[in-house]
């Protein structure tokens, strides 16, 4: 190893194992604390090799006996293991509950002083915002009525793999390997504007479309470009928490827009500058906005001079009747910003969405996106363009619709059997059911109690800007649970409801 490389390695060990500024402690114990702290906070990974006792003694200016004694103590405590002729390594279970916790340190990194107070330095924080959350190891729960995973029974593995492999063929490399700067892969833009959008009655030029990392990225870009503390932003109440959180970074003035069985109530809408709506299947109630209300909303937008942000949420998931035209398709004055997704029904982890808006706004959004991440993965864009062009997207949508229709029927039967005093309406599409429990039930408390029975639900309070208490509403998502598990899951949920009733002193009398 070259001298410079030796010195670099020495500096790294010296920084990692900086002794805590506690002169009253023996050097051996101070070294032990430094090593354990590095392990516990993840700076020294499980299985990582440590320097030899001779090397570390040289770096830290300690005697070799001090380092050897500290190593031996850490081996006895289960933090380190000594491998013959290999050296000393962090054990794979060093962070388990069985390992002895380190003594508290003064400061995070010893004598170098106190770390920055990030709570005062961070100017825009979302860490305390209410959002849909899952427990640790949520995949191990047998009844996950939640959003957030792909369906292994429906995922078109072979078709999607074929498109990825084809994108890697030499003849396709020139289509996605160049740096696109502010642009998108032309093949995907063509598929969006010629295959997807016409189904929603939307006809757009390529200059009107921007690809995003999913719908949530679209919300963030729009908030950065359009909102500040002076803008009045209308949100459906209840509404989409991810949009609310993305918008909240710019601290606009919230205006609550109530919803009914036809979506957002338009005729009593307070003055706004922007209104966010999910007209296809309102999130979370699943209500579909009627044609008459869509027309009224667009007239009011023109008369009151506000802009509509339309998230065409789950528009492809339709089980009965004819699809209503998107608001964007009826927009004659450029007042609708359209947000869509090309990957939601496939897997939420693929993160591909798009915005359709007047080209002047799209040009500004391109600049913002470039400053943030240049552009979404060109490889994924090209692979998905192939997926769309070969009809795999349409075939997959048909399979998903059939499966969701079956699951909706099963959850309706199970709710009627096990929780007959809970109210719900079966939607005409989508992949969820919005449930109203009896007034004494708080869905946040029910959510926690249901976990003990292996059931995950989405408590309703997160969907409200100002949630009621008790909040009797909750959502059952059906995209992550197999059909054969639904009845068992609702039965287990009933057990949680009965347990909550007992804790509340409520007598539950089955309906006749």
In short:
The protein is an alpha/beta fold and 512 residues long. It has helices at residues 3-16, 27-40, 53-60, 64-76, 118-121, 157-167, 173-176, 186-196, 214-226, 241-248, 291-304, 327-330, 359-373, 378-389, 392-418, 443-451, 486-504; strands at 80-83, 87-90, 143-144, 209-212, 232-237, 253-260, 263-264, 274-277, 307-311, 336-341, 353-356, 423-424, 432-436, 455-456, 458-459, 473-477.
Radius of gyration: 28 Å
Which overall shape is indicated by the principal axes computed on the Cα atoms? globular
- The name of the CATH topology of the largest domain is Aspartate Aminotransferase, domain 2
Strand content: 5-15%
> What percentage of residues falls in helices of 4 or more residues?
25-40%
Biggest β-sheet strands, sense, barrel:
8 strands, mixed
CATH fourth-tier homologous superfamily of the largest domain:
Type I PLP-dependent aspartate aminotransferase-like (Major domain)
| Annotated CATH architecture of the largest domain | 3-Layer(aba) Sandwich
Number of strands: 16
Are there runs of 5+ residues with pLDDT below 50, and where? Answer: 104-111
Query: How many domain units?
Result: 3
Strand order of the largest sheet: 4-11-10-9-8-5-6-7
Alpha-carbon distance between the two ends: 82 Å
- CATH class wording of the largest domain: Alpha Beta
Q: What class would the helix/strand composition place it in?
A: alpha/beta
The multimeric state of the shown protein is single chain
Number of helices: 17
Please, what is the average pLDDT?
Answer: 87
